[in-house]
Amino acid sequence: MDYDVSVIGLGRVGLPLAISFADRGLRVLGIDNDAERTGALRDGRMPFAETGMQELLDRVGPIDVSDRAADAAQAQQIVITLGTPSFSHIEIDLSQIRAVLDDLLGHLQPGHALTLRSTIAPGTTDFVAGYLEKHRGFDIGRDVFVAHAPERIAAGRFLDEIGTLPCIVGGVGERSGQVVGELFSVFGAPIVQTTPVQAELAKIWTNILRYTMFALPNLLMMDCEQYDANVFEVIDLINKDYPRGGMPQPGFTAGTCLRKDFAFSEERSRAPGMLLAVSRVNESVPLFLVQGMIRRMGPLKGRKVAVLGLAFKAGTDDERDSLSHKLIRLLERELADVAVHDPHVSTPTQSFEDAVIDADAVVLATNHAEFCGPSGLRRIADGARNQALVVDPWDCFGAGQVFAFADEISAVTARP
Ligand SMILES: NC(=O)c1ccc[n+]([C@@H]2O[C@H](COP(=O)([O-])OP(=O)(O)OC[C@H]3O[C@@H](n4cnc5c(N)ncnc54)[C@H](O)[C@@H]3O)[C@@H](O)[C@H]2O)c1
Hints:
It contains 17 helices and 15 strands. It is an alpha/beta fold.
């Protein structure tokens, strides 16, 4: 075999993994059908930001790439890191995985191991094993190996966590778990063997837990508006010196994982609706903010609103499934004049100063470090109108107000 491992899908999950395998001395083939992505890699360039990854790529040198999934069979170990979106009617979209399986089918031989690293609905690993068995007659777990080894690393933390986070492996049949566990043992983190469906459930419920936890302060924020209460003060009352507290802070809760992974439980749920409600709460935060602005400012038609942050979370350049886009669409539907600034994303945006100058309102959509603290507030106060409304669901400025007028919070945060 020409390679030790092939990684199919060089996205936010697959590419850092491929480079890290190369860093551990494995011969790696990366596969992606996006010409821009493979072109960047041929030039030794990361196509997106991931902490420390460009430096690692510079060190290990360009990895071999191909745009043909069938080439993956040149390695005994094949890792699938393709996208697994959800259809809008709540059902996993397996089309990327199905397409690659069909390309690979005729090229698989005894000894090949297929790892599903993508996030998948319960039962998908067994489906893939069954597909190979049905179409090629393999005895899975004896002559070809199939396992789920879910990615649980947060964006921006890959190099911190790949060597420490327990690596869950759910293998099909007798030896799949062992064979795939050996591949991932190069990273030195504990390998935790389980069944395929338990690995699938563990991954999606890791994300459901976070998605649900963040929905609670978001709902509380809306409750507080209704009762004219301050959400940050209520959260402080819940948590402070109380051993069973732990309410998180409100904010925009989405991103390519949290926004859809709940659907992989919801599609076959015995209690349908519960997680949909969680999603609806998080999804309604942008509308809640727009309505709160209208209550305080009157109609937004022709008013300048600066949106700070397009990325789905602080410090990343990933704007996929970010609620900032939804916020902007809602503001545009109110006929507001929207200006946008984000120092991280590749989408061109205005400078901070141009975005906030003469703004009637400024919304902190992403809590990037650059925006936070008294200096961020000062830059807003310098540029925006005196009576500009500052909307800060993250409490970036420490003023403890979701909605406040700039001069009001400047006075609060100026206090010693
Ligand atoms: N992004 C994250 O932080 C994260 C974290 C944990 C788990 N996950 C899961 O990992 C999986 C991958 O996520 P991602 O964010 O890296 O996705 P992505 O969309 O960034 O990457 C998928 C890649 O696969 C490529 N691709 C699609 N079809 C192909 C084909 N037929 N042949 C070759 N390449 C093809 C695409 O061009 C893309 O580069 C998903 O299941 C996701 O839910 C993502």
